[in-house]
Amino acid sequence: MLNEFVAMPAWTRARSGLATVLALVCAMTMACAHAGRPMTVEDAAIADASSCQLESWVQNNRASTEYWALSGCNFSGNLELSLGAAHISGEYGNHPTAILQGKTLFKPLTPDGWGAGLVFGNQFQLGSRFIGDLYANVPVSFSFQDDRYIVHANMGWLHEKAAKRHAMTWGLGAETKLTERTTLTTETFGQQRDKPFFQFGVKHWLLVDRLQLDTSYGDRFGRSNAERYVSVGMVFFGGSMR
Fold it and tell me: Which of 15, 74, 95, 101 has the fewest CB atoms within 10 Å distance of its CB?
C-alpha cells in the first residue's frame, strides 16, 4: 500500500493516452508510504522493534488492475525499512515497479498525545535505472479519547523523474474506531498543481494484532468517477525476531 505522506511518485506523463492510468498509479503509489492499509496518508508510527509486517492488496481501476506486496521491518528500533513490488496490467500494457522506503520517528505517537516522523523513498520501474521517483514526507499524528480518534496530517516533497519536475505533496486523514476490531478511515491527499483524491476505507482485525483485512474506495475530486478505484487487502504482523 499504500501510500500513498505521502509520496505520489507518478509514472511517465509523456504519453497523453496514459493519463488516466498514470493518475491512478500515482494515487496507489502514495499508499506505499501510508498509515497502514487501507490508508494512503502516513502516520507517526512504525513497526515494533525487531519485528516485520507484510501487506498485500489488489486494486481495480477503470483501465488497469494492480497487484501489490510490501514488506517492512524494524531492525534497529527507530528505523523501519520497506521493500515493495507491484504488477500493474491493463489496456496500455504491463508495468512492473519496485519501491524502497525508510521511516523514522522524531516523536512516537501515544494515546491522547501526538507524534511526528520522516518518510523517504524511491520508486522505480523494474528494468530501468535504479533511481526513479524520489520522495520525502513529514507525518504528524494526533490521538483523541485513548486512540478512538486519530488524525494524520502530512506535508512532503516529490521529484518526478519522467516529468523532470518537483512538487509539494500533502495529505489529511482520520481513523475512527467503530469497535475493538473495526476502524473506519477517511482521507484526502494530493500534490501541487493536481486535483486531490479522496478515499474511504475499513479495516478489521481477523486475528487481533496478527492478521488484518481491509477494503477501500477512492476517486479524484471533480472527475465524475473517471479515476475511481476499489481495493481489498490484508496485513500480516509478525512477532518479535528476538
Answer: 15
Tell me the pLDDT tens digit for each residue of 149-202.
Answer: 999 999 999 998 888 899 999 999 999 999 999 999 999 999 988 899 999 999
- Cell readout for 87 is 504488477
Whether 33 contacts 47, CB under 8 Å: no
β 211-220/64-74 pair status: unpaired
SS3 of the chain: the string is CCCCCCCCCCCCCCCHHHHHHHHHHHHHHHHHCCCCCCCCCCCCCCCCCCEEEEEEEEEEECCEEEEEEEEEEECCCCCEEEEEEEEEEECCEEEEEEEEEEEEEEECCCCCCEEEEEEEEEEEECCCCCCCEEEEEEEEEEEECCCCEEEEEEEEEEEECCCCEEEEEEEEEEEEECCCCEEEEEEEEEECCCCCEEEEEEEEEEECCCEEEEEEEEEECCCCCCCCEEEEEEEEECCCCC
The pTM of this model reads 0.84
